[in-house]
Amino acid sequence: MDIFAEFSARIAAAVAALFDGAEGLDALIDRIVVEPPRDAGHGELSTNAAMILAKPLGRNPRQIAAEIAERLLADPDVAEAEVAGPGFVNLRLVPELWLAALRAVGTEGADYGRSDLGAGQKVNVEFVSANPTGPMHVGHTRGAVFGDALAALMAFCGYDVTREYYINDAGGQIDVLARSALMRYREALGETVEIPKGLYPGDYLVPVGAHLRQVFGDTLATENESDALERVKPLILDAMMDLIRKDLGKLNIHHDVFFSERTLHGQGGEIDLTLAWLRQNDMVYEGRLDPPKGKTPEDWEDREQTLFRATDYGDDTDRPLVKSDGSYTYFAADIAYHRNKVLRGFTHMIDVLGADHSGYIKRIQAATRAVSEGTAEVDVRICQLVRLLKNGEPFKMSKRSGDLVLLSDVVDEVGTDATRFMMLFRRNDASLDFDFAVVKEQTRDNPVFYVQYAHARSCSVFRTAAREMAGLDLTPAGLATAELAALTTEADYELIRVVAQWPRLVATAARAHEPHRVAFYLYDLASAFHAYWTRGREESDLRFVVPGDERLTLARLCLVDALRQVLRNGLAILGVSAPEELS
RNA sequence: GGCCCCGUAGCUCAGCUGGACAGAGCAGUAGCCUUCUAAGCUAUUGGUCGCAGGUUCGAGUCCUGCCGGGGUCGCCA
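The joint structure predicted for all components is written out below.
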């Protein structure tokens, strides 16, 4: 049950009835917002309907507001409706309605907050897509967590979500990887080797070398290099993807589809087909490109090349599809890849990329528009950099792989929950400080702990109730019999109202593709609960467990249970556990 | 030089697809443990929302131009 959605509909109906026949009324109604006011003095729900209507109707907003308020007052669920400020209508609802919302949390359980916002539409969330040249490092972590949480958020809101990983296994760095692995192979044969500069020195390739020896014996050593490379590549790529999947597994991230870029290449492959299609639709031409303004690359060579008409679809310049050596650019493959997604039926796509790819956004959006003939859109979410700190000082960890801090090092150090939550406790488009010291603290400074503690504490209340009031039936069936009317204090209602905002909040977060909103909401919810809890220390009538008053206790436990349920549902979206007690 | 992101309290950041006097944590100050986990809570100090214009009944939020920080700029992926 979503009180805000419910009243959004009732207000829309009231407005439609009052101003029936007004020009463009439906569009105006779409712009009406029903929200919880920032200031509690402004009621429990607030709407700007009158201000939206004032100008088009050519009328005084406060007058319109008065008419809307009057009509809403006729609704038996509305206790108060008053006009305020420039023309807001502020509502208070009858307590029964809030209690009904509270009751609904108990019955909806893990589904509380779920919606059909997405109406089952297919959404493809492409994230991580790290080059398969070694284990994942911290730079990949944020995008990985963000993409996974966003996918969960969309799924919760009724989208049919596919989590997808685009394996960049076709570029030159794969040759470098394969040559690096062959060095380890020779090492496994007993040779003493020194990894030349420019190859990957990481010792994660040592077991790959040993594996190659197992599979191929010493036959690769005598073969010419390019033949050997082609033979070993599939094995090496499998090994790298296993590494990556293992790293992702540490964060509880599992993709539905791993899409190999290699499969797009080759004669008659999808890139060829896509290019042919683009040509057929006059989206490609042979032409020259101006060098970037103000900064001409030293090796700039003015040449005629194959260009995609990206400017026709919102990009700043047309984009090359073929390199000077005749092979396809990365972008050409990516067009084919996004066309592939369109052909698979995705009209909504989300690409999660690192900060260094922000210049790529317009290009990929242009390509998607072109290739889908305007029927599909891609939203590109950029994750900014993560700065690793310890006690506020820049921090470098022991490194097993070049200069990079590994994802697995971070997770081993602070745990999956802390890693995930911290990565989400920040807008994705702003850079993020990740302080190892703070994340391991069990204090209010650490939001991960703070929210998990609220959940543990809510469970603790139930343990206490079971101990002190053995006669109470604390099962869901027992809680369902509670007389919620026993809840009468403002403190109770403050908590109920926060819990009741969850469906609206989660829908808003999904629409905006912003999972961090869930994290911040959970922090606020935890804060409201901790505040209530502590008040009970001083005011015994504000305790959750009130020995001698079973009626009140059971009602309060419903409230705690609802709050606990929202914490669970929210944490589940973030992929963070909800422990019953803290060690 | 072009494009993208950021600029909100001393510090770290929210601000719900423009709304009512701009919020939280930390730091500072003053308090709260015989009582459901004080691993917490309460009160309080503190802001020209980078600057200047514009659109609007209404701008931290949208537009334009500057200033400052970061990223990126055919043949890397």
